[in-house]
Amino acid sequence: MEDVTASFDLDDDFYANTFTEEDQAAFEAEPESPRKFLIAWAAALVLGPLGTHRYYLGLIPTAVTKSLLFGCAAVCVALGYVNASLVFMGVVTAWTIVDLFLLLSGTMRDRQEQRLTGFRRYAGPCAAITVMVLVGFLITALVVGTSSGVTGG
């Protein structure tokens, strides 16, 4: 049997997609936004379905669209159109999760396409908190969903 690990170069194979020193220098030379990463992330995590983080970053057209979708979901709930509200909330929730990933990866920037201040310092801890919150929501949804099916409620 051939030893596969003998021909496996850890440096080249595992770290092929990491930043080079030139990439790091280019990143550091980019202008920083006056907008704070931590504020945008917290707004996305807590009030993401309303689009508050997009308003904060100056992304007004998409923020208004997201707010309108959330408003449509609320109106559908008030009128008793539960299935329509679930569709609207599903879109808004998926969009919020994507926005969180874009923020945490550094891809989402402000209106001037500048990177957010504090991204390098806070992205790691914020990513860990985001994962814990999303897993907590998932577990809660599973518990509520299975318990309502068992109790008939």
TrEMBL record:
Chain segments annotated as transmembrane: 37-56, 68-101, 122-144
Highest taxon in the source lineage: Bacteria
Keyword Transmembrane helix: yes
Membrane topology: Multi-pass membrane protein
Stretches assigned to the TM2 domain: 34-75
InterPro entries in alphabetical order: TM2
Pfam family, one: TM2
Keywords: Membrane, Transmembrane, Transmembrane helix
Protein name (database record): TM2 domain-containing membrane protein YozV
Source organism of the structure: Nesterenkonia lacusekhoensis
